[in-house]
Amino acid sequence: MAKATDSPCQAEACDLQACLNKNTYKPEKCEEHMRNMYKCCQAMYERTDGKGESTACPMPNVVERWLKNHGEAVS
């Protein structure tokens, strides 16, 4: 059985959750952590031709839309 830490981008998701907990769920205070997680997910999807899986990552189209909406170039 795989450990949760075996999931790609799990560390970034945990950092984001810790930030949200610390800041009473104010996502605007955790923008950097959110961006790191989405960039990690995008890189994972690019490496796996969109077939990668991670409990930490939303679906590829959600990742792409978020990055585009937040000023990140998406390949």
Automatic annotation (TrEMBL):
Return any one Pfam family short name: CMC4
Where is this gene product found?
A: Mitochondrion intermembrane space
Q: Which domain of life is it from?
A: Eukaryota
Q: Which key words tag this protein in UniProt?
A: Disulfide bond, Mitochondrion
Q: Which SUPFAM superfamilies match?
A: Cysteine alpha-hairpin motif
Its family remark reads: Belongs to the CMC4 family.
Query: What is this protein's record name?
Result: Cx9C motif-containing protein 4, mitochondrial
The species this protein belongs to is: Rhodofomes roseus
